[in-house]
Amino acid sequence: MLATAEAEKERLLAAGAADKERTLALAKAETVRAVGAAEAEAEAAKLATYAELPPAVLQALTVRELAGQLPPIGQLTVTPDLLADLLGRLTGPTGTLTGPTGTLTGPTGAGDR
């Protein structure tokens, strides 16, 4: 009789532990589902906002996101030929650069303002 009572006690303890594990697993699964649903809702809201933006803004956001993924630049050497090419692209074929205060002309930027 004592062995039977001890076996019954062990069986009940094991069943209780199994129920506890099952309950914890269900609670964890529900938490994961809730977090996933919230993340999906946030992503859908973000995409809905992006759908209303002009293409130029989307391109700028894309470039910004990509720039954030680049490794840091420790040192940058700008050679005269690189600088001349860059300034040529900025000024265009006419050699003028339009800034916020007016048209800048010449290599020093001294011109009509």
Q: Can you describe this structure in just a few lines?
A:
The protein has 113 residues and is mostly helical. The protein is built from three helices and two strands. The chain has a domain at 2-71.
Structure characterization notes:
With 113 residues, this protein is mostly helical. It has a domain at 2-71. It has three helices and two strands; from the N terminus they run H-H-H-E-E. It has a two-stranded antiparallel sheet with strand order 1-2. Strand 1 (96-99) and strand 2 form a beta hairpin.
Which SSEs are present, and which pair or pack?
Blueprint: H1 2-51, H2 55-69, H3 80-91, E1 96-99, E2 102-105
Antiparallel strand pairs: 1-2
* Derived structural class: mainly alpha
Q: What best-fitting shape do the alpha-carbon axes yield?
A: elongated
Strand content: 5-15%
Helix fraction bin? 55-70%
Oligomer: single chain
Descriptive labels:
single chain, 113 residues, mainly alpha, two-stranded antiparallel ribbon, 3 helices, elongated
